[in-house]
Amino acid sequence: MRALITDPAAPGGLRLGETPDPVPAPDEALVRVTATSLNHGEASLARQGAPAGAVLGWDAAGVVVRPAGDGSSPPAGTPVITLGMAGAWAEQRAVHTGMMGTVPEGADPGAISTIPVAGLSALRALRRLGPVLGRRVLITGATGGVGRYAVQLARLAGAHVIASTGDPAAHGDTLRALGADEVLAGPENVDEPVHGVLDMVGGHHLVAAYDRLAPGGTLVAVGRVTGEGESFPYPMLSGDRGHDRSIVSFYLPGESGLGPDLTWLAAKVAAGVLTPQIAWRGPLDKAAEAIDALLGRRLHGKAVLDIA
Ligand SMILES: NC(=O)c1ccc[n+]([C@@H]2O[C@H](COP(=O)([O-])OP(=O)(O)OC[C@H]3O[C@@H](n4cnc5c(N)ncnc54)[C@H](OP(=O)(O)O)[C@@H]3O)[C@@H](O)[C@H]2O)c1
Question: Is the CB of 143 under 6 A from ligand 1?
Fold first, then answer.
């Protein structure tokens, strides 16, 4: 099959080439991939140290070609949404049936392919905050793939949504249209305490966001795009300005029971309740161009690669 293969000698570290077809385990279905989307993490991996000859890619929309041998997958011909730790940047992938959801007939595969990592991370991280109806929720890195789903889902859940971006002038209208009540240039500009934070940025953004948490509030540390460490100045972790404030780490591959959430998110995107926020779309062999833009902070939202 054709796939995007890591190759340190190729421009951008990737080349389109031939690789053996995947061989599914009994609890995996074989899926023909029709679209995949890029995420910050795998884009960084493609640029910084994936082994040569690997087929990367976490998110894919497609159609079941051969159902799982143990009977746990939908039948052949079913449109599906899939998540895996590799193998999505290819014409076919083998997918564990617990990392697969079904998709309404006729849904755009490109739109569906934006969901797995970004949509699931936003959904599962938001749930860590508990009920958010009528509560203030801060989302950092709000213009990114995870952030845009987080803003929409927090709004859907009834939160007062505060979106943080490095450039509110450029992205304010878009974020408000997605459901943000306020758009700010960084957590340090939040004026009143918040019940919860979904932090996609890390470093000093995480520290400033923690400082804005109300007593009993939770910050979910989802991402670290800055690559910075965190230093909490004394007495930020001491008692008098707020207590019982929590920082919870988050790791999507450690989550279980993802299939029903994939199906739910796919239905919401297909119905137009959630928008996929596709900022770039092209063929598989143009992936390096999209990766450059994503890592260079010039592409905000999701990049989709169509696979013929
Ligand atoms: N823990 C997990 O399981 C998990 C799951 C999914 C994602 N993640 C992580 O979550 C993070 C976000 O993922 P994503 O796919 O949404 O990434 P993304 O699409 O690249 O979005 C990240 C956003 O952060 C902002 N940003 C980028 N570089 C920055 C910098 N140096 N300083 C401050 N802000 C910066 C940008 O917004 P502005 O330019 O508008 O400021 C950008 O839109 C990544 O670190 C990713 O690896 C973790």
Answer: yes
